[in-house]
């Protein structure tokens, strides 16, 4: 297997966005829920790119130092030329939680290049990096705000973003030196830009733990960045940090420079899955079913963006869930479980949503809500799988909830089924349990998607 790239997602929803980017570029690709076994790799067949979905975004530095070496070793064994540490597109992290500096320190030991390459934006989801400062849209198509003035991100409950300059942000997390490549440089002739980048790299390589930070102000910038990453990867494997724009950049560059591949691509490449788990590339968008059956959505996100989406979900029966009661009262969980499964058995679409954060209202450890909701989701899915009408489509909103929920299910990988909105991917489950194999999942971060995203899930 000769891979073009590999990625580790520091949270689950972001990892699925990278899966979508790679698949739509025409690459044969799969996202594993853990380092795959030899048997799982054999089932996957020949791939162009693969990812591993992780949860480092919620880890302490010590936890990251314990978890990431096996990831680095796996990708080194797979000989990936470009390894992406896929962080959130808003780079929300801190020295104490989800430290990008720790990720760079650990994974940098598994690639040839001593410099890490940071890509700062992703225009298709409203993320822009200009003169090293990160800007983000408020919701889909909303106002563009500098990150430290973004209402949601500056008030993030775990990693509030009070610094928009990514150079300063990375240095706070232990990256010793960060040199920028600002977007006006992308207008330079190729040779002149190459010389400028090489000079910056020469400077960085004389220092400990250096990073080269690329602006992304426009979609057209991606081809230039992709060329630079590809050029450096010819000299040895390298580590990149950023959103899915890293894979976008590589794909744009390689597809432009390989006409045979470019001309053979369908408008949208969709991974189809046969029952034995092998992959082939076909055409189409989101799988259309004459009857997808009852759809279950669970919303664990407290984001204002997701709150708007819940209000627009008129085709669902809404079931409010009290977060504190879900954690503390088994009888309450049993009652709500019974309500939801009865509605699903009657063929009704159900949207359950947490009404208040127990973290904010009570002294509850932050991970308790995500663990409680993940267990609740698994219970509903398992109940339906044991009955006459297993779920065929499931949606989960909230980064931590999505990550834990997917891991509680008996699934070992996800392939691409379609895109519901920029940054929101519909995936197809690979499982050794025939009742779960082929289950379609939407795993959505709180900030992602249009107001009608839950209605789109029913299409």
From TrEMBL:
Query: What's a single GO MF annotation on this record?
Result: ATP binding
Q: Which InterPro entries match?
A: 4-carb_acid_sugar_kinase_N, 4-carb_acid_sugar_kinase_N_sf, NBD_C, NBD_C_sf
Q: Where is the Four-carbon acid sugar kinase nucleotide binding domain?
A: 297-454
Which stretch is the leader sequence? Answer: none
Q: Which Gene3D superfamilies match?
A: Four-carbon acid sugar kinase, nucleotide binding domain (3.40.980.20), Putative sugar-binding, N-terminal domain (3.40.50.10840)
UniProt keyword annotation of ATP-binding present: yes
Q: Which SUPFAM superfamilies match?
A: YgbK-like (SSF142764)
Domain of life here?
Answer: Bacteria
Q: Which UniProt keywords apply?
A: ATP-binding, Carbohydrate metabolism, Kinase, Nucleotide-binding, Transferase
Domain Four-carbon acid sugar kinase N-terminal intervals: 6-250
Listed Pfam families? NBD_C, SBD_N
> Which protein family is named in the record?
Belongs to the four-carbon acid sugar kinase family.
Protein name (database record): Uncharacterized protein YgbK (DUF1537 family)
- What organism does the record attribute this protein to? Paralcaligenes ureilyticus
């Amino acid at each position: 297997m000769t891979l073009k790239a590999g990625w580790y997602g520091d949270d689950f929803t972001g990892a699925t966005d990278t899966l979508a980017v790679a698949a739509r570029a025409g690459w044969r690709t799969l996202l594993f829920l853990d380092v795959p076994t030899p048997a799982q790799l054999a089932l996957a067949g020949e791939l162009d790119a693969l990812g591993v979905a992780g949860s480092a975004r919620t880890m302490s530095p010590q936890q990251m130092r314990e978890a990431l070496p096996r990831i680095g070793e796996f990708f080194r064994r797979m000989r990936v030329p470009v390894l992406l540490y896929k962080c959130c597109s808003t780079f929300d992290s801190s020295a104490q939680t989800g430290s990008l500096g720790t990720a760079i320190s650990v994974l940098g030991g598994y690639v040839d290049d001593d410099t890490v390459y940071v890509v700062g934006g992703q225009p298709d989801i409203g993320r822009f990096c200009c003169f090293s400062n990160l800007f983000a849209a408020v919701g889909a198509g909303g106002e563009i705000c500098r990150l430290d003035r973004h209402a949601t991100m500056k008030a993030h409950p775990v990693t509030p973003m009070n610094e928009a300059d990514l150079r300063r942000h990375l240095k706070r997390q232990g990256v010793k030196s960060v040199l920028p490549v600002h977007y006006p440089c992308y207008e330079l002739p190729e040779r002149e830009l190459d010389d400028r980048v090489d000079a910056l790299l020469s400077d960085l390589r004389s220092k400990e733990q250096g990073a080269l930070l690329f602006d992304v102000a426009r979609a057209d910038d991606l081809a230039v960045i992709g060329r630079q990453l590809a050029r450096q990867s010819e000299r040895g494997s390298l580590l990149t940090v950023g959103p899915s724009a890293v894979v976008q950049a590589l794909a744009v560059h390689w597809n432009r420079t390989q006409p045979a591949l470019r001309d053979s691509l369908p408008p949208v490449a969709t991974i189809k899955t046969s029952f034995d788990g092998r992959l082939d590339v076909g055409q189409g968008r989101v799988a259309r079913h004459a009857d997808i059956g009852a759809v279950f959505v669970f919303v664990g996100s407290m984001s204002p963006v997701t709150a708007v989406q819940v209000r627009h979900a008129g085709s669902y029966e809404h079931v409010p869930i009290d977060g504190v009661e879900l954690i503390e009262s088994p009888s309450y969980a049993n009652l709500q479980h019974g309500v939801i499964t009865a509605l699903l058995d009657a063929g009704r679409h159900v949207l359950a949503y947490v009404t208040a954060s127990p973290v904010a209202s009570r002294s509850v450890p932050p991970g308790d809500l995500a663990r409680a909701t993940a267990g609740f989701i698994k219970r509903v899915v398992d109940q339906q799988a044991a009955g006459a009408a297993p779920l065929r489509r499931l949606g989960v909103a909230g980064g931590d909830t999505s990550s834990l929920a997917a891991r509680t299910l008996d699934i070992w990988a996800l392939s691409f089924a379609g895109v519901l909105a920029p940054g929101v991917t519909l995936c197809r489950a690979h499982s050794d349990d025939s009742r779960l194999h082929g289950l379609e999942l939407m795993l959505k971060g709180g900030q992602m998607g249009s107001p009608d995203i839950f209605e789109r899930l029913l299409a």
